[in-house]
Predict the 3D structure of the following.
Amino acid sequence: MYGISRIDQPEKKNHGYYVRVTYNGKTQQKYFPDKSSGGKGKALKAAQEFRNKLVAKLPKVRQEAAARKKRRIKKSGVVGVTHVVSRAGGKHTYEYWQAAWMDPSGGRRTAKYSIGRYGDKKALEMAIKRRRKAVRAS
């Protein structure tokens, strides 16, 4: 599923597949909603076709690397708590656990806890605790 993400936001009635492929600093992206695509299966098929056309334009070496690429995604086991790896200036990478929730007015709120500062386990615990506290308060 290289380059394809599933988007499910029931509060915004937003369901579909998002395609994003970046090469040489340029990003090509497109969203395929379930409703206007004729259902979840057709949206996925359209997203895959779009992604395949983008990847076909890439140099052969890049195509093979994309096909082989394995992603290690850390899972928190808690809805709304995700592991994030961010790059700054193309050189430094920062990892953190992020808690996300909706505030009472319907806005999206987040809190980030640095793995470099707190360590992986402590940052994860802090993110889970923050999300639970925020959800209880709203």
Observations:
- The chain has five helices and six strands.
- Strands lie at 4-9, 14-23, 26-33, 81-88, 92-102, 108-114.
- Residues 81-137 form one domain.
- The longest strand covers residues 92-102.
